[in-house]
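Minutes, project check-in

Agenda point 3 was the complex the collaborators sent over. CS summarized: two entities, 844 residues total, and the question is how they sit relative to each other. Sequences were read into the notes so everyone works from the same version.
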Amino acid sequence: MVRSGTEHTPDRQGTAGSPAPPDAGAPGTPPPGPPAVRIQGLWKRFGQQDAVAGVDLELPAGRFLGLVGPNGAGKTTILSMVTGLLRPDAGRVEVAGHDVWHDPVAVKSRIGVLPEGLRLFERLSGRELLAYVGRLRGLPGREVDDRAGQLLGVLDLADAGSKLVIDYSTGMRKKIGLAAALLHNPEVLFLDEPFEGVDPVSAQTIRRVLERYTASGATVVFSSHVMELVESLCDWVAVMAAGRIRAQGPLAAVRGDASSLQEAFLELVGADRTSGEHELDWLGGGTR
Amino acid sequence: MRTPPTTPPAAPVAPRAWSGRPAPGPAASATAVFVRLKLALLRGGLRQSSGRRAAFAVAAVVSLLLAASQLLVLIALRGHEHAAAVAVVLAVVLAAGWAVVPLLVPGGDETLDPTRLVMLPLRPRSLVVPLLAASLVGVGPVFALALAAGCAIAVAHGAAGAVTAVLAVPLTVLVCVALARAVAAANIRLLTSRRGRDLALLSGLFIAIGFQFVNIGVEKLTAPGGLALLEPAAGVLRWVPPASAVAAVRASGEGAYGEAAVLLGLTAAAPVLLLWWWEHSLTRLMTSPDGSTLRAVSAPSRRERAGSGPAALLPAGRSSTVMVRSLRYVLRDPRTKAAWATSLGIGLLLPVVSSVQGNRTLWTACWAAGLLGMQMFNQFGQDSSAFWMVVQTVSSPRDAYRELRGRLLAPAAVGLPYVTLVTVGSAAFLHRWPDLPEVLGVALALFGALLGTGAVASALFPYSIPQDSGYKNVAPGQAGLAWMSILGGVFAGALLCAPVVGPVVWLHVTGGHAWLWLALPVGVAYGTALALLGLRLAAPRTAARLPEILTAVSKG
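CS then shared the predicted structure for the full assembly.
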């Protein structure tokens, strides 16, 4: 069953379009003030395809927020438009109450970004990369070097700090990218598939740092298609498919009666779980 | 868990041919399969695009025409007193080419990479003959055959010479092919590692600089009596395979049969040794851990703290941070390094070559300014998608101005002393001190103009530089943009120099030579003004187009 952005099951009706109030017992109760991100009527078209087709979304501040969806759902496109890396065709995006496209000074100093599929300045060492980014952000040199040293230590990169980023593994790249995104202590952190291709040890390190960061009242928005991860990390989720938001709200509300977020997600995006079951009946069970 | 065997299991009996048909027999099949694989790879490569087909056809025709003309020239050289020296040196150059080209063009022949065959149940020893046979397929071996035949014909006299030539020519080709295989196999770890790819990216630089030396060499050799210069080298090289085969042909023609036998024996020993080395490398490659493990061990240990060294002397701020980053890329990024080193090298070589050729003008020193100034073009394309990190930190035209100023200061910091040094050096070398002020003035005006137009072109016409290929400087579909940016920019830059060049010409024509020194201060001031104007024009456009620039430079 596929539901459009305006068609939702009754138990999630309240969560689409206008977000449900945060559940009282949720950890990290959001501070009063504007939402971390407010998106209104966001559109982006590539050629004949609507990558993002009229998205309205309000992400509360001070939470660990998950943006989930299958490959090609438009998660990266939305995050790129929210962080000023891609210009939308239509719509409005506010981060911490400031318009991304009209007030970039206020927005860019408040956000940290870890995009997926974009390079870093890989011919710099990890330490040099952080020093470079911190100084571009206008932080004093000594402060940058101190923060960089601490971040490298916490992210288990201290020994690799003087190695060129191009020689880093995927996990190390994600960690140095995260360090660069955290260096200026942003209010809102946007992470696109931060755990993609990362080994369990690095994933645990990243997770520990993110949990510490949100505990201080900051907001993390991250995209993923690994439901177990989202379920264990996030207290608020938005489900995307085919460029639209299918559901949004506190984790429990979006999960509804389903046994897991995975089940709820498959139902929301309309995945057919039975196709192909009988087509590979020759596979397995020894040589035949 | 099972431990993987140290050597792959025995060869399969009948690998299937690429056509889907089973190969005819176990013994001959591997050779046939690899020859067919080479042909299939050639065909597959050609099928990718009509442009590639056309390029292959043109390259093949040009190579064959070159081979044929060399053959004719060598036949014409028969009887010339220096024919033997020419033939011997040519044979060595041919072998050196076979050894070096696969290193510079690692993707040129996919069958050269034996690590692709590691997962197949084949023993390294059983691969040697099939891979060697596959190497003999292609335009390259035909070219080598024509050249080797030409060398042999140039020096063969009498029946003994002819008989030796019949042995010498195939041996020469075999040595070349085996050398290419052995060198490639011994270096494949390097070639497939990041450092090897970095080195391969510098190949353009070697070719550009090498071309200048070839230019000088050809000039010297084609002068009357120039070929005599080869004699001392040929005296030594005749003992080096495969040139020893050519020397053997000559020796047997002159009746020195003992010497001919020794020389031919040397040539015959070479492929045996090369094949042994190759098999040894193959075995090591196919039975030891791959390059990713080794690379970590050989990783450089950089101990410097960020912000230390000369960088610490610069004032704090975005521009100096960006400038230091740009200069680090000049040293560390092979593409940027190649572009800069080519500019610096050619900028220095052109005045030298020009003076060797007898031109006593100082104006060739302007090349240094022109080539270095062009490094300012497509600044953001050089970042590729890492430009997002810049986008995240640019919020206003002021930020963009500081960013561009840092990027401009990098070539300026190197270019100003370099252009001055080259011009002053040329003036000293050519004893043309009176021309120095006007030439330096125009050169610096040109440098400033190119830095300024480069900044504007970077903002208006960004394009991506594919990071995975050393031979493509533009992503597909953006070639027009790149040409427009560079040609338009260079043309505009040259045109912008008119206010300095025009008066200099006018003073020459009207005999006002006493005032020509004014070109220096005017050129410096005008060049600085143009560079600053370029920054002023480019900054607001950059700030306004950040997402569009990022999209343009992230392609490919």
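Noted in discussion: Chain A touches chain B at residues 83-87, 104-105, 107-109, 111, 113, 115, 117-125, 127-128, 130-133, 135-138, 140-141, 145, 148, 162-164, 166-167, 180 (CB under 8 Å).
Follow-up: revisit at the next meeting once the mutant set is ready.
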